[in-house]
Specification:
The chain has 428 residues and is of the alpha/beta class. Helix content is 32%, strand content 26%. The protein binds uridine-diphosphate-2(N-acetylglucosaminyl) butyric acid.
């Protein structure tokens, strides 16, 4: 197992290029199951979650080739069942259900288990499949969905916690090959949903309204292979914006889409940072006048839950009282205990973290618990006095392509080492 050692308080400066989006790539790769034709997807990031998805596709019978950021997939003859062992490693594997059901008329996928960021049911996905005419059974930990003929229908996908991103993706992927017209009300408006719809449209699907709360899909008989470039990862970009804000002396984030990051740049401006935006780049300057802020996470275009942990790291050293409420995943606060070990002053009540800014954080050995929590610990380590040791860094490799190399190119000093040598190093 690997650890990261972050030598804190190195000023950061320069330019960083953003990778393709993980959360776009995953459903887009799953969507290749909908056709026998060759699909070519560019700008697919090199991440362990992507590796899991490609393994699932290979197990289903797809021919998969990967060369740097380009993935070629041909799903000529496929099975409809995936083994638990692979699926359990990644919750997002649930998004193969929609395309399998659409193409094969049946699908068996393991029911996702517990998740460290909170209870993550898939009731809305299943309700959507049922509305399209599928019969769903949960048997021996598997979801078995059966629908020899999917039929278009009007479906509301809004649940207690709001919209569902992968739920919208799943129903859209099932509906593109259904008979007739499907209307999804209460659809997720995230840019990743629009990116998936754009790929499906290139494959021959008829979809209108993706990126809004109402998506209309007219089913077609079959889809063809297509070529697509994935959008930039807005959460990776947001994480680098926070890094820039924390300790930057002028950092520019390139190859990003600033319109996807408006809620994050607005929060940073409110927190006192200077933000300059061009068509595909954002520059953040720490002008020395940081202010506390209040944030509520919301579905897009609101402030993303996937940026909540990183903002906690920034606000930990922002003088005054800040508050962050996570309305989407109210239990997604595992990083707080670790930030407190580094000297942060944070109280959690319900889904609201009250953060009283301290003048500085101190290095400590800390444990990454999930992807965005790990990013928050890296951001805390960048500003801490001393060497922060982050354990279980495999969490960060699920969603950030070479984060240590990218930060080092900006002036950070981050080492990635095997656990045993980390012990020697810290002991010396
Ligand atoms: N929900 C339900 N029932 C459902 C589905 C969702 O109650 O059937 C609830 C969830 O429990 C949650 C809320 O609805 O409270 C939103 O969940 P959503 O379904 O939108 O989450 P997701 O689609 O499973 C994606 C991202 C997450 C991101 C969320 C919210 C991917 C692969 N994952 O998950 O990304 O946090 O949307 O924006 O796209 C991450 O990248 O670190 C990550 C966790």
């Amino acid at each position: 197992m690997e650890k990261m050692l972050i030598h804190g308080r190195k000023p950061l400066q320069g330019t960083v290029k953003i990778s393709g989006s993980k959360n776009s790539s995953l459903p887009i790769l799953a969507a290749t199951l909908l056709t026998r034709g060759m699909c070519t997807i560019h700008r697919v990031p090199d991440l362990s979650d992507i590796h899991y998805m490609l393994t699932i596709l290979s197990t289903l019978g797809c021919e998969v080739e990967r060369a740097s950021g380009t993935v070629r997939i041909r799903a000529e003859n496929i099975r409809s069942e995936t083994p638990y062992d692979i699926v359990r490693k990644m919750r997002a594997s649930v998004c193969i259900l929609g395309p399998l059901l659409g193409r094969q008329g049946e699908a068996t996928v393991s029911l996702p288990g517990g998740c460290v960021i909170g209870d993550r049911p898939i009731d809305l996905h299943l309700r959507g499949f049922e509305a399209l005419g599928a019969t769903i059974r949960v048997q021996e930990g598997n979801i078995k969905a059966l629908a020899p003929h999917l039929k278009g229908s009007t479906i509301c996908l809004r649940g207690k916690q709001g919209t569902t991103v992968l739920g919208t993706d799943n129903i859209m992927m099932a509906a593109v090959l259904a008979d007739g017209i499907t209307v999804i009300d209460g659809a997720a408006e995230e840019p990743e949903v629009l990116d998936l719809a754009n790929f499906l449209i290139k494959m021959g699907a008829r979809i209108e309204g993706a990126g809004t709360a109402r998506i209309v899909i007219e089913g077609v008989k079959e889809l063809q292979g297509a070529e697509h470039e994935v959008i930039p990862d807005r959460i990776e970009a947001g994480t680098f914006l926070v890094a820039a804000a924390i300790f930057g002396q002028g950092i520019t984030i390139r190859q990003t889409l600033p319109e996807h990051l408006q809620s994050v740049t607005a929060a940073l401006k409110e927190a006192g940072f200077r933000i300059d935006i061009t068509a595909d780049a954002i520059t953040v300057n720490n002008n020395g006048r940081r202010r506390p802020i209040m944030i509520h996470t919301q579905p897009h275009p609101g402030f993303p839950t996937d940026m909540q942990a990183q903002m906690c790291a920034l606000l930990s050293t922002t003088e005054g009282l800040s508050k962050i409420t996570d309305n989407i995943f109210p239990q997604r606060f595992m990083h707080l205990a670790e930030l407190k070990r580094m000297g942060a002053d944070i109280e959690l009540e319900g889904a609201t973290a009250s953060i009283r800014g301290v003048s500085s954080l101190g290095a400590a050995p800390v444990m990454a618990s999930d992807l965005r929590a790990s990013a928050a610990l890296v951001l805390a380590g960048l500003q801490a006095d001393g060497i922060t040791e982050i354990n279980r860094v495999y969490h960060i490799d699920r969603g950030y392509e070479s984060i240590d190399e990218k930060l080092n190119s900006l002036g950070a000093h981050i080492e990635r080492i095997k656990s045993s040598s980390a012990k020697n190093r810290l002991g010396s």
